Amino acid sequence: MDAELQAIFDQAQHIVFLTGAGVSTPSGIPDYRSKNGLYTGHRNAEYYLSHTCLVQEPQVFYNYVKSNLYYPEAKPNVIHEKQAALTRANRATVVTQNIDNLYNDANCQHLVEFHGNLYQVYCQVCGAKVDWHDYLKSPYHQADGGWLRPDVVLYEEGLNQLNVQRAVGAMAQADLVVIVGTSMRVYPFAGLLDYRNDQAPVVVVNQEELNLGFDYRMVKADATTFFDELRV
């Protein structure tokens, strides 16, 4: 670990981690856009994960989500664990695009799941929360026969405004922003950078450099190696 970089982390008291799929690939969860078969036939993943598909072809939606998105055996890796440790010390907030629940498994305290969580499931008829194990067995709510769905943001749906407010607030207060495992090309998540504290340094831990439009510190390395070496 670079001593200067370690010092930047040591001095920061309000870190914001902006994270994406690259954080969870070491845990065995494939990146959506590189997974074999994610784009199939004339309907791509955007359709299968859309509000239209959920409403018009709920069985198709269910089959796709169940077969492609759930990895209940996956465990948090060192990236989740080190970031979560900093949140438990009240020194960091994690704002993630991931919907895989691994930050919760790592006991992450200040967490904004920007796109929701696959493992939080509810009935579309009565609104009751349902255990995700039951959802993977059947898409119907036993109590009233209503279709179940995971509490994630689908294409054509709006974001949870409380999550947006929490993320924007964290960015405004940050004294260090760390981008990990995301291209920062998907909006509105990428737009969170517009709300950053201009005095806060930005560190990118990624395999590819990003085009952010401002100066940042690039760490072109495997994120698991970086966080394994980071002292928290």
Task: Please describe what this structure looks like.
By secondary structure, this protein is an alpha/beta fold. The protein has 9 helices and 9 strands. It has helices at residues 3-11, 45-48, 51-56, 58-68, 78-88, 102-105, 132-137, 161-173, 223-229, and strands at residues 15-19, 92-96, 111-113, 116-123, 129-130, 148-152, 176-180, 202-206, 217-220. The strands form 2 sheets. The protein has a 6-stranded parallel sheet with strand order 3-2-1-7-8-9, with helices on both faces. Strands 5-4-6 form a 3-stranded antiparallel sheet. α6 (102-105) links the parallel β2 and β3 (111-113). α5 packs across α9 (223-229).
End-to-end distance: 12 Å
- Spatial order of the strands in the main sheet? 3-2-1-7-8-9
> In percent, how helical is the residue content?
25-40%
Helical/strand content category: alpha/beta
Q: Biggest β-sheet, characterized? A: 6 strands, parallel
Write down the oligomeric state.
single chain
Let me know the average pLDDT: 93
Output the number of helix runs.
9
Low-confidence stretches: 35-42
* Strand percent estimate: 15-25%
Number of strands: 9
Order of secondary-structure elements: HEHHHHEHEEEHEHEEEH
* Shape call: elongated
Report the C-alpha radius of gyration, rounded: 18 Å
